[in-house]
Write a structure and sequence with these properties.
The protein is α/β, with parallel strands linked by helices and 318 residues long. The chain is built from 10 helices and 16 strands. The structure holds threonylcarbamoyladenylate and magnesium ion.
Length: 318
Amino acid sequence: MITTDISKAKQVLEAGGIVAIPTETVYGLAGNAFNEAAVRKIFELKRRPLYNPLIVHIHSAEFLSQVATDIPAAAIKLAESLWPGPLTMILKKKPAVPDLVTAGKDTVAVRVPNHPLALQLLRQLSFPLAAPSANPFSSISPTTAAHVAEYFGDQLPVILDGGDCQRGLESTIIGFEEEQPVLYRLGALPVEGIEKVAGKVVYRTKAAGTDVTAPGMLSKHYSPATRTLLTENVDQAVRAHRGLRIGLLVFKDSYRGDDVAYQECLSPSGDMETAAANLYAAMHRLDKQDLDLILAELLPEEGLGKTINDRLRRAAEQ
Ligand code: TXA
Ligand code: MG
């Protein structure tokens, strides 16, 4: 059932069930983070490997001490200035968080989502919510309640409808080495925003697929079913694939020719926030056009453009 009634979601969650919740980034598949049976259901529903840990969602930084310990001063500063918001922090975990949530790691990923419905719901619950993005493993993340319904239909008793996700990209994930922030996943919060508060961020660059520190970094991820290629020159790429039924995903300049079957322009005004908010919905629509090929235009490699390009690269991975 798609509903805006928080009490329905609360009821299911308190009984150990799973619901979809809106956040400002993407929709999540949520369950009681302290209830192992509920967490197991999330993994099963999403067909997610058990080595891939979940993010724990809380309603405010005050709740941190119930799930994490030995919190670095830099993390407290970041929480104070950027929560609620699209920032996930990896911290030392407390025993109350089941090993299943953290895939056996001694750390836990935590964030306060910035969405009024999610926050109201969390405030009414006595436990935090473990929630991965509400898509089957490795497919495109959902940014509307309808996307979630297409993926999981009647397998979910409640899909809490919070409208279109404002940010449209997953949260940025950072951990800490001593006090130094370390980037685990590019996300909706540009790294520059973190650096303003907590100083230089170190990038973890490991060969794709060789590290499961944050499987959001797995090379194939966020993928449409349609073959996807990246380009920096749309005209040339279209010419090179004449004869195919082509769909385009362009940043700001629409393609003028009549030799493509379908096209999505992410932000005619060229602003990255709009492009980010539209990205996954555009990918969902493209994937439904019965295309032979999606040609996706890379954005300038700065600010949110870095995150969008990261997602496009993973979408294009075979
Ligand atoms: O915006 C978001 O972060 C959304 C919304 C629903 O909050 N959630 C989300 O969850 O994107 P998910 O499960 O799709 O991605 C979470 C990422 C995974 O790549 C996982 O490996 C990483 O967080 N992660 C979770 N716990 C971790 C830990 N203890 N150490 C390192 N990485 C962790
Ligand atoms: Mg995900």
